[in-house]
Amino acid sequence: MNTEILKIFDVNGKYIGTSTREEVHSKGLWHETFHCWLVSIVDNRYFIHFQLRSNQKKDYPNMLDISAAGHLNAEESVHDGIREVHEELGVNVSMEDLISIGNIPNEIIQDHIIDRELGHVFLYIIPDESEIKYKFQIEEVAGIMMIELDSFEQLWLGAIDSVQAKGIVLNKKMEKVEVDRLVRKDDFVPHDSTYISKVLKELKIFLT
């Protein structure tokens, strides 16, 4: 297996060199990632599409996460990150289809990992939900769950304890099945609250 090499940065976002992905996460070094949040419009309401991480994932299996995201290798540009949308979800989009909502820092500090990301964050407004035909990368993704934007914000801020999530997931036979269930805040990857708050603020600017 090839060792993944990433660019690393200081706390101010200044490029300082490269390092392996393993070292980046063990030492908590700042590195670049690509994030794409998919949003659909149903009955004049906005719904965020959350990726359900595969149970095969080493980190945060079976948890809800950014629609599509991934690391940018040292030789890649931000535009190369769009491959994540196609690889993970099977959705073909171009950079022209995306709205940049900025470079937003994101820290996840756990016992086994210190993940400090400089996230290049984008929004994709799905033009017609009926045209989306998800094809999941099964070792990475187990489904997509939709949650109303305002309801998710209330959940994240602690105003409510649970929220309704609807979507399509893979069953044990790797068949797509529809699901409708309540989810709680601890069902989500524990992203930095500052990151999520900034994303929600920027989403609302472009959606309303």
Strands, helices and their partners?
Elements: E1 5-9, E2 15-20, H1 21-27, E3 30-42, E4 45-53, E5 64-65, E6 68-71, H2 83-89, E7 99-109, E8 114-125, E9 141-148, H3 149-157, E10 163-170, E11 176-183, H4 193-207
Parallel strand pairs: 3-8
Antiparallel strand pairs: 1-2, 1-3, 3-4, 3-6, 4-5, 4-9, 7-8, 9-10, 10-11
Write a compact overview of the structure shown.
By secondary structure, this protein is α+β, with helices and mostly antiparallel strands. The chain is built from four helices and eleven strands; from the N terminus they run E-E-H-E-E-E-E-H-E-E-E-H-E-E-H. The chain has one domain (5-207): Nucleoside Triphosphate Pyrophosphohydrolase.
Model description:
This protein has 208 residues and is an alpha+beta fold. It has one domain (5-207): Alpha-Beta Complex (Nucleoside Triphosphate Pyrophosphohydrolase), CATH 3.90.79.10. The chain has helices spanning 21-27, 83-89, 149-157, 193-207; strands at residues 5-9, 15-20, 30-42, 45-53, 64-65, 68-71, 99-109, 114-125, 141-148, 163-170, 176-183. β3 (30-42) and β4 (45-53) form a beta hairpin.
Question: Tell me, what is the CATH class?
Answer: Alpha Beta
H and E string: EEHEEEEHEEEHEEH
Number of helices: 4
State the end-to-end distance: 46 Å
Corresponding CATH superfamily? Nucleoside Triphosphate Pyrophosphohydrolase
For the CA atoms, what is the radius of gyration? 17 Å
Work out the number of β strands: 11
Segments where pLDDT lies below 50 for 5+ residues? none
Largest sheet: 11 strands, mixed
Mean pLDDT: 94
DSSP helix fraction:
10-25%
Structural class: alpha+beta
